[in-house]
Design goal:
The chain has 549 residues and is mostly helical. It is built from 18 helices and two strands. 80% of the residues lie in helices and 1% in strands. α1 runs parallel beside α11 and α2 runs parallel beside α5.
Amino acid sequence: MTPPPPPPPHRDDDHAADERAHRGVFSAIRTVAGFTLLSRFGGLLRDVTTARVFGDTAIASAFAFAFLIPNVFRRLFGEGALAAAFIPEYARLDAQDPALAARFASFTMGMLVVVTSAIAILADAAIFLAIALTDPGENTRLVLELTAIMLLYMPMICAVAVLGGILQVHGRFAIVAFSPVLLNACIIAGALLAIGPMGLDPRGATYVVSGGVLLSGVVQLLWSLAAIRRHVRWTLAFAGSRDSVRTMLRRFVPAAIGLGTLQLNTLFDGFIASWPILVGPTILGVAYPLDEASAGIISYSQRLYQFPLGVFGIAVATAVFPALSRAADQPRLFTEMLRRGVRLSLFIALPATLGLLLVRHDLAYVLFRGGNFSEAGVDRAAFILLGYAPAVWAYSLSHVFIRAFYARGDTVTPLRIAVSMVALNLLGNVTLIWIPGLGEAGLAWSTAISSTVHALLLMRSARRLTDGAPAVDRTTMQALGVSLALAVGMAFIVGLFMLAVPRLDGWTHALLRLLGACALGSAAYIAGAVALQRTELRWLLSRRSDPDA
C-alpha cells in the first residue's frame, strides 16, 4: 500500500521561518550600525584633526583629490561591481558546497590582487613620468605625488572590501564594520606625529598622513585575513569553480560599466572641484568660479552628510544584502524583506535629512573651526551642506534598491539608470557652479538632484524584482507617511529650540547649541515613535519582530 504523501508545510511554519530570517537582518543592522557609528565618530575625529592641520587651503584640496583615487577603485572593485557579482554566488555556493565556495573565493581574491596591483604600478609609473617631463607647479606636483602614494593603498583596500563581503555572508558584520576604525586611527596618528614630534608644516604633513593611509591598508588587510581563517581555506586549486566564475563575470561586466560610469562621474566631480590646483584659476581665459580651497572644503562637507548615511543608511543596505541574496529564489520572503528594508531605511533617513539641514552650521563650526581652518571656510562648508542634506533619504534608499537588484542577479537595470543619472549629474555640475552666489555648492545641489531622481527610478523599476507587485505597497507607503510626519514634527521642535537659542560667537556655545538640538530632536522623534507604537522601532530594538506587522 502506497503511503500517503507528507502534508504540505504549515503556513505558520513558513511564517516562523520568515520571522527568523527577518530577525537575523535586524540583528545585523544593529551590529553594523553600532560599529559603523564607532568608526564614523573616529572619522569625524580624523576630519577634525586634518581640518585643523591642512585648513581650508590648497593643501587640503590636494590631499582630498589624492585620497579620492583609491576610494573610487574601492567602490568599483571592492564594495561595488565585484562585490555585487561575487557575494550572491558565494552565498549560494557556501550553502551548497563550502569547499567549492572556498576555491571560488580564492580565485576571486587572486584575480583582484593581480588586476589592482597592475593598475597601481602602471598608474604610478605614468605619474612619475609626467612629473619628470612637465615640471608641474608646486600645488600640482603635490597632488600628483600624493596620488602616487595613495594608489599603493588601492589594492589593499579593494582586497579588504571583498574579504568584508565574505565575512558578511558568514554573519561577521562586526569585524567588517570595525575596519574603518583602523584607517581613522592611522590617519590621526600620522597627523599628530607630523605636527607634534616631527614639527612639519601643513605641506610636509600631507606626506606623513599619506603614509598613515598606507599603514592602515596593511593593518586592515591583516585584520580581515585573521578574521576569515575559520571560514575560508585559501587554495591555488580552483577546480570546479569555472561555472561560478563565469556567472560572476557575467554579472560583473555590466555592473562594472555602470559603477565605472558612476565612479568616472565621481572623478569628474573631483576634477571640477580641483581645477584651480590641477590647472589654474581660469578656464579658456575666463575666471573659474571655484578656488584652490574648494575641493578640500567640499570633501569635508561630504563627510558630514555621509555620517548619517554611513551609520544607518548603508548599515541597513549592508545587512539586508546577504539576506536578500539568500532569499532570491523565495519571491514572497524577498519582497517582504525588501519592503522592510525600505521602511527601516527611511525611518532613520527622513529625520536625519531634516535634522542635518537645521544643525548644518553649528556642526561645521564645531568640527572644523580652529587651527588653519577659518570662519569663512566654516560658512562655505555649511552652505555646501545645505545642498547635500536634502537628499540623505535618497542616498539611503538607493543603496537598498541597488542591492536588491544585485541579489536577484540583475546588474543591467541599475546600469541603465546609473548611466542616465551620470549624464544628469554632470550637466548639473558644469552649469550650477556658474550661477552667481552658488559656486562650489552647485556640485552639492547637482548631486542631491540626481540622487533623488536615481532613487525614484530604482523604486519604480523594482517591480520586476517583486513579480510585478509594487516594491513599495500601500502598507509600506502608509508607514513611510507616518515616519515623515514624525520627522516633520521633530524638525519643528528643533527649529523652535534653535530660534530660542540664537547663534553666538564661540566654539563652546556652538557645541552646546548643537548638542541641545541633537538631544531634543532624538528624544522627540523616539518619543513620537513610541507613542505611535511604530513597528520600525521595535524591529531595531527588539530581538523579536511583530508577527502581525
